[in-house]
Specification:
mainly alpha; 81% helix; 0% strand; globular; Growth Hormone, Chain: A
Length: 395
């Protein structure tokens, strides 16, 4: 293993630990955001608006932040500023007694993620090209999911065992999140000084950038595939809603199933990331085909084991999306355009997921069969587009 590869791997692992500790912060908070706002006196409409508007801003703003990161050639600036909002907006909730301020902080957290994500993904992609884009993003996603599982668990334990009034326990839980937020920020600053120009990972020793295809028809075709996949991908909240409505499991089991899905996600990210480095977009085709069975098994099959299998397949698809989808961009988009490309990828995915989820939520009330059919049709349509892309380009 060359020094460049070892250095690239060190950068990926470092950024993976940044993700791990930052996910403890905001994934931990997301699990209790609704009840916390309720305790502060917010209405259901306020809770829904906060979640929906925060996600909308979080996805749409990525298009502009990615473009600016490319134009200014200062990805670390966007990453550091974004993480500052993203990490510390949540612990500040420990001092909040008004739902209006809490709502603004929660939206600020999503805004921070939008500012930093395209620039951050670009920097990781430069290093990932040295170890294999799929494997590199797979490692990062696996570490990320450790945090995603740990955060809600930590908040759950605090709320269960801390004495005092409920609002007091929420405040104590948010104050604990200063610790992982600070660790994540320290690691990020260390990364800034150790790896000031991550784009150098993707340059030849002569200083010339590796050649790569331009942002063109292949990229557009890929975004169509991503949009179809996202639109057909069922949200876990709808799956958990169905489990509760059908009384398939007691309430305490549903969060455990989500944890199982996140564990499968972590393993799947590395497996399909490696598979992508060997087989190309065939890995995403396979994971999408497998993941498309999650909806039929969860919503139509009879029996708890089928539901558990459906949730596991959902986790497989999620893990592959988080690693392979970003790896494809690293392969088909030149370094100097990658921030904008990641911003565009995230915006297309987010808007499509929102539209598809809304449509399937409406169909759930009238016909489970139609809802599942729509999910299958969209995801298999994505598979078809990816086959066309594979035939046109080596991705």
């Amino acid at each position: 293993m060359s020094q460049r590869v070892r250095s690239a791997m060190a950068f990926i692992v470092l950024m993976g630990f940044v993700s791990l500790f930052s996910d403890i912060v905001y994934e931990g908070a997301r699990g209790v955001a609704g009840p916390f706002l309720l305790e502060l006196g917010a209405s259901a409409a306020v809770v829904a608006f906060t979640a929906g508007f925060g996600e909308l801003v979080g996805y749409v703003l990525r298009l502009f932040s990615g473009y600016l990161a490319d134009r200014t050639k200062r990805p670390w600036l966007f990453t550091l500023v974004g993480y500052s909002f993203n990490l510390f907006a949540i612990p500040l909730l420990a001092f909040v007694w008004d739902w209006r301020i809490a709502m603004l902080l929660m939206i600020l957290e999503r805004t921070g993620k939008a500012i930093r994500k395209p620039a951050r993904d670009s920097m990781v992609s430069y290093a990932a090209k040295q170890v294999g884009p799929g494997f590199g993003f797979g490692i990062e996603e696996a570490l990320d999911q450790i945090g995603a599982v740990s955060g809600p668990l930590i908040l759950s334990l605090i709320l269960s065992f801390k004495s005092g009034e409920l609002l007091e326990r929420y405040h104590f839980g948010f104050s604990i999140l200063w610790i992982p937020a600070s660790i994540s920020m320290i690691l990020l600053i260390v990364g800034r000084f150790l790896f000031p120009r991550p784009i150098e990972f993707e340059k030849e020793p002569t200083g010339r950038s590796q050649q790569s295809s331009r942002l063109g028809f292949e990229a557009v075709l890929y975004l169509v595939a991503v949009g179809l996949l996202a639109a057909g991908f069922v949200d876990f909240p709808l799956m958990s809603y169905h489990m509760a409505k059908q009384e398939l499991f007691v309430s305490a089991v549903v969060p455990l199933l989500y944890s199982v899905a996140m564990g499968v996600d972590a393993a799947s990210a590395i497996f399909f990331g490696r598979l992508y480095d060997r087989l190309g977009i065939t890995a995403l085709i396979a994971s999408t085909a497998v993941g498309s069975l999650a909806a039929p098994l969860t919503f139509l099959a009879k029996g708890k084991l089928w539901v558990v299998l459906g949730v596991s397949l959902w986790g497989i698809s999620m893990g592959a999306q988080e690693s392979v989808m970003k790896a494809v961009i690293a392969k088909i988009i030149p370094p100097e355009k990658r921030g904008f490309a990641y911003g565009l990828l995230n915006s297309v995915f987010g808007v499509s997921w929102f539209a598809g989820s809304f449509a399937m939520g409406l169909l759930y009330q009238s016909s489970l069969g139609l809802m599942v059919s729509l999910s299958l049709l969209l995801q298999l349509g994505s598979v078809a587009v990816m086959y066309v892309l594979k035939a046109r380009a080596a991705v």
